[in-house]
Amino acid sequence: MRIARVAVEVEPIHLDRPFDYLVPDDVEVVAGQRVQVAFAGRSVRGLVLETTDTSEVPTARLRPLKRTLGAHVWVRPDELELLRWAAERFGAPLADVVRHALPARTVDVERRAADAGWYPPGAARRATSDPPPPQDEIAAAWSVYGEQGQRLLAAIGGGQGSFVWRPLPGEDVAARIAELAQHCLATDRDVLLLVPDPDSPVADAVVAAAGDLAVDLRGGPSPRVTYRRWLEARCGVARVVVGERGAAWMPLDRLGLAVVFDEANPAYKERRSPRHHARDVVLERARRAGAVGLAIGTVPSAVAWRLLRERRVAAVTPSRDAERRARPDVQVDTGEGEPRARLTRASLRALRDAVRADAYGVVLASRRGEGRALVCAVCGERTACPRCASSLALHGVAVACVGCGWQAPRVPACAACGDRRVVPLAAGAVRLGSELSRTFEVPVAVLEGYGQPAPPPPAVLVMTRGSVLDQPPGPVGAVVLPDLDGSLRRPSLDAAEDTLRLAMAVAAWTVHGRRRTTPGVVVAQTREPDHPAIGALVAWDPGAFWRAEVQVRAPLRFPPLAHAVRLDFAIDPTPLLGGITQALPAGDAVLGPVPSDGRWQLLLKVDDRPETLAALRPLREEWSAANLDVRLDVDPVDAW
Predict the structure, then answer these.
(1) CA 112 to CA 91: how far, in whole Å?
(2) Which residue, 500, 507, 516, is CA-closest to 549?
(3) Could you give the CA distance from residue 588 to residue 580 in angstroms, rounded to a whole number?
(4) Per-residue three-class SS string for 179-214
(5) pLDDT at residue 370 greater than cutoff 70
(6) What is the model's pTM?
(7) For 275-293, how does the pLDDT look when each residue is reduced to its tens digit (9 = 90+)?
(8) pLDDT, mean of residues 82-90
(9) Full set of structural domains in the chain with CATH
(10) How far apart are CA 77 and CA 498, in angstroms?
């Protein structure tokens, strides 16, 4: 007998195991091929994990493979091990990882590629004839990053290593990454670049530098185009892959450099199973390939900070003197003594000065214009949960904490003035734009998403996080951050570092290029000037933020001091709590259940993530077999 052991692409975790199928005499199949099989009365895809001549299943019960999907091997042995690692790391069925990693097949794409002479894999590999950038110019550009910067350059020239790079304020990051990509290509090694949004100037620069060696997956191309680009990378015709989080799995024969730009951006977190984070996949992939893994960001995520503390990645940072000289001018404005308004007098003055200088004035609105964060209508003091200090949300006359679930029948008295009247802290972008258009004579543009062009300066730009790109649209004379307090208290585990990351990204626009003789000003409106994130923004010191933040999180056992695992149930899991608590390793803590959008959620705080996932596995299989809808998220972004 010839037996193919197949990972069948079905969802339930209690079916997360290989199934044996007979290989017909007229079919040639090897490990790593994708196949069509019959499963539970329907035809589904599967990935061949291995071939053998024995099976524990009686021969009479074995079903034959229907057919192979393409003549090529979809997943090579080292890639299969990465898929298995991801399934274990994120507590997901292997089938879910396979579905994310592999595109849908289009036979016509294979036919056209064969006619062009570059399919199947091995038929052709495109070599680059471009010389590397001048080494003296690269060395000069990276000299500000000291010994670790030179170590990074040496690794890209033919070595390996994992790095976290914090660019100097105003650095031309797009040019630096394009140089690194060319340097890597010149050594006959391939490049992978992940960006969080489709309009990334960094990605544009790399694609332009690589020319026809690059495939660009940004914006979610059609399945047909995606499969063609996947085949180009599989066959070695493409040497550079650029895309968003889905590109983390794209095959490259000789990976030399894998870059995750803005590594802490929540857009890299997959919301569907396996709910992986693309940064983790790319760094692990580079490590296994003997390549350079490079995560880039001004404010490291909790995961990156933990890796830095454990010395599993090396920090590439400018000297503190250089950083102080280059940092933006950040002014903290508490609005004390002023009537409550969306923008303080200092903010309006900064915007007016910017447009008078024929530049942009930028206002960063809250992410969705949400009004869940409440402040006192009289004095502006933020209304905070007495248990965890998160923001409170109104439910009629009652209030509830969006962080830990604490509830009260009515709004608590203001800690500063005793009044119980509250109003939303943040206005949405459209409302802010409408208010500003009555104040300024120049155009006021509201940019709420990707791909929205800005009017030429002078103008006021009201932006949400989705419109904040790698580089400013032009000269920026002022940046106003009016909603920091609400953002800092969002009900997410990464609220503080994410707010600081976004604030620093926009603030850096005022010094972009480091060529302006009169850089702009940044006005940070806050009622909490002593918050570690505010202090780090002013000093331009993310390390100081994390040193202070870990002290706050230590008693709470929140990341990066512990791992978080979230369980999301379709029903109230209270009757299941006893079994869950009993199964978990000693020391694991359970918060909840908390209702959220028609579902119920538990948050687990754990020290040994693999041990906890292994302890939960029998319960999850039991729930799955009973058709109970339970979703697991390792290292979630949102608490609830």
Answers:
(1) 39
(2) 500
(3) 11
(4) HHHHHHHCCCCEEEEECCCCCCHHHHHHHHHHHHHE
(5) no
(6) 0.88
(7) 999 999 999 999 999 999 9
(8) 97
(9) 3-102 (3.40.1440.60), 135-322 (3.40.50.300), 328-370+426-551 (3.40.50), 563-634 (3.30.70.260)
(10) 37
